[in-house]
Amino acid sequence: MADLGLRSYQEEVVQRAIEGENIIIWLPTGGGKTRAAVYVAKKHLETKPQAKVVVLVNKVHLVDQHYTKEFEPHLGRDYTLVRVSGESKEKDFFGLVVKDSDVVICTAQILYNALTNMEENKHVELSDITLLIIDECHHTHKDSAYNKVMACYVEKKLKGEQPLPQILGLTASPGTGGAKILENAVDHVLEICANLDSAIVSTKDYVSELKQNVPRPVKTFDIVDKRLEDPFGDHLKSMMQTIHEYMNVPPDFPLRECGTQEYEADVVILEQRGVRDRNRPLARCALHLREYNDALLINDTLRMMDAYSSLEEFYNKFTKAIDGTDFFLVGLFQEHQVELQKLAGDSRYENPKMGKLESTLLNLFRQSVNSKGILFSKTRKSIHCLNDWVLHNKALQGAGIKAAILTGAGNGGTHMTQNKQTDTIRNFRDNTVNLLISTSVAEEGLDIPECNLVVRYGLLTNEIAQLQASGRARAQNSQYSVVAEKGGKEVKRERTNEYLEELTKEAIAKVQEMSDPDFRTKITELQKQAVIVRKLTEARKAKKRSRNTADSVQLLCRNCLKSVASGSDIKLLENAHYVNVNPDFKKHYKVGGEVMLEKSFEDWEPGCTISCSECDQDWGYEMKYKKVALLPNLKIKKLALETPEGSKTVKKWKDVPFTVEDFSFEEYCRDNFPDLLD
Fold first, then answer.
1. Which of 39, 51, 436, 524 has the most CB atoms within 10 Å of its CB?
2. Pairing verdict, β 53-57 and 103-107
3. CB distance 426 to 68 below 8 Å
4. Which residues is 565 bridged to in the sheet?
5. Cβ 68 vs Cβ 74: under 8 Å
6. Helix/strand/coil (H/E/C) assignment for every residue in 163-221
7. Is residue 63 one of the residues assigned to a domain?
8. Containing structural domain, residue 178
9. What is the mean pLDDT of the chain?
């Protein structure tokens, strides 16, 4: 195994996979799981007739990373490798790509689409694949793309269909699935094993070598006392109380404490109730209260001015008041704006956590000019604020801190393009940047150089995320710091996660102790149960969708509650876009600026944004399809539904209570351009 430079513990964990068994490799972040997978793929390609390896990842950037860093350098000389993501043209003839390649690296969604798409050039059968490698395989549960792929596998396995690919899963931790006791944690690990039809393997003989090569950082809790006075936060709370009185909070729905996640959950439900009951004052007040609560949460973690700016930005975007409720809400903010700004600028009441964060960073960066760190925070908004703080903090700049933001790839104002993500990591590697300020995107998967400091700030996450974040501090004598308030939720969660990490280890040990017949029996039993649950869930959803005819449902603007379309106007385009095909819909919206997307698509391109002509609510954007059709592509979360059973809101189109028919280009052209088709 010398050609790939495998260590003894890696050789141990791949052994059963080389013998053709389905396994999950459990090694910590930095333990070399991907290198081990490359070795298994190499052996498989050398020994299996008509071998076909597919590597699945759960994030687009990992397609390029695994191809460039691991698979191509070791396999590219002897085998044909192709990488495919939603951004590559190969996805449009994926079936042919799989046929003509030895190794394909792609996102799980692309493989699932190919398994369910019957077009010859796009379709793939599981029997076409001989080895399926699943990265970060702890995500193989619930409705994830990984689990959809594996559900196809499990159903074929239970029916006795052959051949099926060998499975190789990779994870730093399967977690406990929310379980707090050993018995339930064991059940969770078994469920992950059942979903992947695999046993879980870890090193037994080379634990000391693993620890030596993947050192754990020194953990510190940098604790700060609660701030004694918070006049800015108090002022926000008094304004929220004024809104409570105006909106008449329903007596059966007492709101929990302002400035908490629980309060946010309450006002989200209140907004939905307001829309459902056509009670616009309740819906709009709840929406604005969520922004005030956001400001309180920012005030608790960041600078007061960040909290004020967040609220100011929201009201600056507020372009059109359409009734007394809007005038009241905008007027309330304007009336208190000067006072809020003044309080936010008073340094006597600044957030003490920021001071503690400053000293934590200075302690490390003053020691060595070669220090590298990652500062994890919860939201895109918070990392932008933290980056601004670092840039304008004289002490941090004096210590030579060069910060950059790292967020998930996507389309939208606060998302990063994939190219920008790659550039940022390259700059971090060559020391142009020495502090990444990141959301959870940097916790797993990304190829980030060794750090000697990881700071968690204002974060409440599960044990898997915590373990992966600490695994980023891989340099010798590195430090993992939790900056938090004394007795706060972050410290409690961190301690709980430490317990859950140990519970995960115990649960895995219990599963590994099971005899092979007992393990196989249990796995098959869980797989049969999962198939039944999936079928029942699908039947329930189908029943829900058929409860109403499409033309009995009206779509309302979620802001002004004006009826703007019928459910029968909506069609599903390419199994992904919900578009309105009724030409009369144009009179309900106005067109804004051009939408820019980083990637291009085979049959369509984005047009301009669209918003409600009555109240300016954002609804989505127009898409130009096959250079002929201009179709409004709508966001369901910006709309409400009026059904025969009453009004309701849904988060995703797949949850609407009527069946949406597929878009027919021919029918659309016949209805809209009859002269052209004569």
1. 436
2. parallel
3. no
4. 555
5. no
6. CCCEEEEEECCCCCCCCCCHHHHHHHHHHHHHHHCCEEECCCCCHHHHHHHCCCCEEEE
7. yes
8. 2-212
9. 93
